[in-house]
Amino acid sequence: VSTVSVVDRRGESEESGDDETKRKSLNGEVDSLQAPSTVPKESPVDMDTITLDPDEEDVDLVHCRIGKIEGLEVLRKAKTISLRQNLIQCIENLDSLVSLRELDLYDNQIRKLENLQALTELEQLDVSFNILRKIEGLECLTKITKLFLLHNKIMSIANLDQLTSLQMLELGSNRIRVIENLDSLTSLESLFLGTNKISQLQNLDGLHSLTVLSIQSNRITKLEGLQNLVSLRELYLSHNGIEVIEGLENNKKLTTLDIAANRIKKIENISHLTELKEFWMNDNQIDNWADLDELKNAKGLETVYLERNPLQKDPQYRRKIMLALPNVRQIDATFIRF
């Protein structure tokens, strides 16, 4: 596995999607497998042919070639329903499932978020890998804590104001250009916006509870707008156009900083990040060994990625990192043997 793909994987939420798709979805290879279920032309089955157990709490209807949601009224006890990898085009006929906690519609052909208003107990919703163009129809889901909308065609972040219990929001691989309309999400802990078209870090000030922020593979050129995120522990900004490490003065709790594959010439302004455990800096323009002094205060630093910087041309590359940072256990993809 190339390091780059490893770096990319880390900035995605681990919870949505199957591993194979997730592994491929990160280096922009996604389009070739956008809905695996649609490649061979499958004809939908009739729901009448599927036997449902009225007492079942966890209902698994994965890859059943279901074309239309219907006949689920018997599932009054259902807490979780998985309809992933089917041929569903419309969210409908769910009104009787009032005790539902989790609904999984990953990898279908859904164009619109609708008909969810009866599911007021819902805590988790996954509509990743569909063809949604906007976020809508979620106002009644006030108990929802995790929302996965990975890999759709969503143009903007909107209509989330009522979801004040939301802890995780996954909007990676969409067409979002601006970070906006997040102020009411004061419980949000993880925000994933990788592989969009975002050019500026902004409008994050209200997210005081945020611990994970991933905005890899966007168009960001300046590190800014993070001063209020004092709880932030993991920051993933690889594959952007950042030139200077700056603006992290208040993010003292950071344990992971990933700024691989940018245009950075100098490691600077991070000597105060004493909690750092992982530092991803490969594929930049670092050429001065003295820069590693910036990491000396992070006594718990375990992993450092510096490959494909000018520094790597030094025949003593690994040895010099070990001397400068004696606590490090892993340099690039290789563990240190003692």
TrEMBL record:
<dbReference type="InterPro" id="IPR032675">
    <property type="entry name" value="LRR_dom_sf"/>
</dbReference>
<keyword id="KW-0677">Repeat</keyword>
<protein>
    <recommendedName>
        <fullName>Protein phosphatase 1 regulatory subunit 7</fullName>
    </recommendedName>
</protein>
<feature type="compositionally biased region" description="Basic and acidic residues">
    <location>
        <begin position="7"/>
        <end position="23"/>
    </location>
</feature>
<keyword id="KW-0539">Nucleus</keyword>
<dbReference type="InterPro" id="IPR003603">
    <property type="entry name" value="U2A'_phosphoprotein32A_C"/>
</dbReference>
<dbReference type="InterPro" id="IPR003591">
    <property type="entry name" value="Leu-rich_rpt_typical-subtyp"/>
</dbReference>
<dbReference type="InterPro" id="IPR025875">
    <property type="entry name" value="Leu-rich_rpt_4"/>
</dbReference>
<dbReference type="InterPro" id="IPR001611">
    <property type="entry name" value="Leu-rich_rpt"/>
</dbReference>
<dbReference type="InterPro" id="IPR050576">
    <property type="entry name" value="Cilia_flagella_integrity"/>
</dbReference>
<feature type="region of interest" description="Disordered">
    <location>
        <begin position="1"/>
        <end position="47"/>
    </location>
</feature>
<dbReference type="GO" id="GO:0005634">
    <property type="term" value="C:nucleus"/>
</dbReference>
<comment type="similarity">
    <text>Belongs to the SDS22 family.</text>
</comment>
<feature type="domain" description="U2A'/phosphoprotein 32 family A C-terminal">
    <location>
        <begin position="314"/>
        <end position="332"/>
    </location>
</feature>
<keyword id="KW-0433">Leucine-rich repeat</keyword>
<dbReference type="Pfam" id="PF12799">
    <property type="entry name" value="LRR_4"/>
</dbReference>
<dbReference type="Pfam" id="PF14580">
    <property type="entry name" value="LRR_9"/>
</dbReference>
